[in-house]
Each structure stands twice: as structure tokens, then as C-alpha cells.
Amino acid sequence: MLKSYLYHNLTEAGCDEAGRGCLAGPVVAAAVILPKNFRHPVLNDSKKLTAKQRNTLREEIVQTALAWNVAFVDNHEIDEMNILRASIKAMHLAVDGLLKKPQFLLIDGNSFFPYKDIKHKTIIRGDGLFFPIAAASVLAKTFRDEFMEKIHEEYPEYGWNKNKGYATSVHRNAISMLGITPYHRRSFSLYDTQLSLDI
């Protein structure tokens, strides 16, 4: 069972992002404030859940959370500022949009820039340790997947409905054959540069 909070006396928001390692699409972050007594038998790191579980949990989180918000930083901004800064910007934007102001931020991972006057703690694999971060991971993942499925309709050859923009062989082969789209991150290694040796 995950922990509900780090500090019982503070209003904590969990923050996480999705899409950091993708070749296409935005990076998406979520911030979630849950009730202190929140418990759930299934909620965990979104990567450990099925798509069906994530979608069910998304509705439960939205209904139960004291406050939640999701923010997008698109591929053009990622190229301008690099993926780490874009991921942290997305988390800042997510916190910006919370209707309830948190007193402390629980951040998944090991990198973060201070947000205004609110203290924070970075927690490696925090989405598998704290419910607020796990909830943020589910929202970030489901909202991003939804976006990728939508733009898949514009460019179906790249298989974004399945790979969600990650560097699968289908995705890389499509880039090699068709080139890149307006949704691709030009600052990433988009082409498979592995060379075959003639023996």
C-alpha cells in the first residue's frame, strides 16, 4: 500500500509527468491534491497499470481529489528549452492551475526547479510510493495518451494510437520512410542511425 502523505500537517500536491522519452507529441504533467485519508487498493505507478485500470482510476481521481490540474508543453517548446526544462515547466503549469494552493510539493524523479515559495521534495520512483504522485502519474499518462490517439487520426502511419509517440520500430520505420511531422521533436534522435556492416 502506498503512503497518503509525507507531512500530515501540510496540504501536499503530488506531481508527475508523462511523455518525456517520446519522439513526438507534448510532455504532459499533472498535479493532484488528495484527501489525507485517501486509500486505494489499485492505484499505483501508472506504468504498472493496464490502460483500462488507468482510465477507471482517472475518473475516480477527478471525482475524489481536492484539486487537480493537467498541463501540456508541446514539442516546439521542448525543442527550444530541452526536455528536462520542458518537463519541469509542465509541472509548474500544472501546479499553477490548482484551485487549492498546496503547501508542499511531492515531485516524482530527481530533478525540479523551485516553484515560487512552496517547498518540495524530489522522490525517485515516487509514483510507486505516494498516492498523490501515483494519481498525478495516472492523469498525466491518460491525458497524454488521449492526445496522441487524437493526432493519430491526422498521421495514422506512425502508429501513435499504440506507441503513443515512443521510439518503437513501427514509429522509427515510418519516420525513415515518410519523414517527420509537425508533432515530432527535432531535438531528439529521430532517425535510426544504426549501420549494418558488410562482411
Q: What separation lies between the terminal Cα atoms?
A: 55 Å
* Structural domain count: 1
Strand content: 15-25%
- Name given to the CATH homologous superfamily: Ribonuclease H-like superfamily/Ribonuclease H
Question: Could you give the order of strands across the largest sheet?
Answer: 3-2-1-4-5
The number of helical segments is 6
How many beta-strand runs? 5
Radius of gyration from CA coordinates: 18 Å
Principal-axes shape call: globular
Low-confidence stretches: 195-199
> Could you estimate the helical fraction of the residues in percent?
25-40%
CATH topology: Nucleotidyltransferase, domain 5
Query: Could you report the average pLDDT, rounded to the nearest whole number?
Result: 95
Going by CATH, the architecture would be 2-Layer Sandwich
**Main beta sheet:** 5 strands, mixed
Question: What is the C-level CATH assignment?
Answer: Alpha Beta
- N-to-C SSE string, H for helix and E for strand: EEHEHHEEHHH
Describe the structure.
- With 199 residues, this protein is an alpha/beta fold.
- The protein has one domain (12-178): Nucleotidyltransferase, domain 5, CATH 3.30.420.
- It has six helices and five strands.
- The chain has helices at 51-64, 75-81, 83-96, 131-152, 160-163, 169-178; strands spanning 12-18, 27-33, 67-73, 104-108, 119-123.
- It has a five-stranded mixed β-sheet.
In short:
The protein has 199 residues and is of the alpha/beta class. 36% of the residues lie in helices and 16% in strands.
Question: What brief labels describe this structure?
Answer:
single chain, 36% helix, disordered C terminus, alpha/beta, 5-stranded mixed beta sheet, 199 residues, globular, Nucleotidyltransferase, domain 5, 6 helices
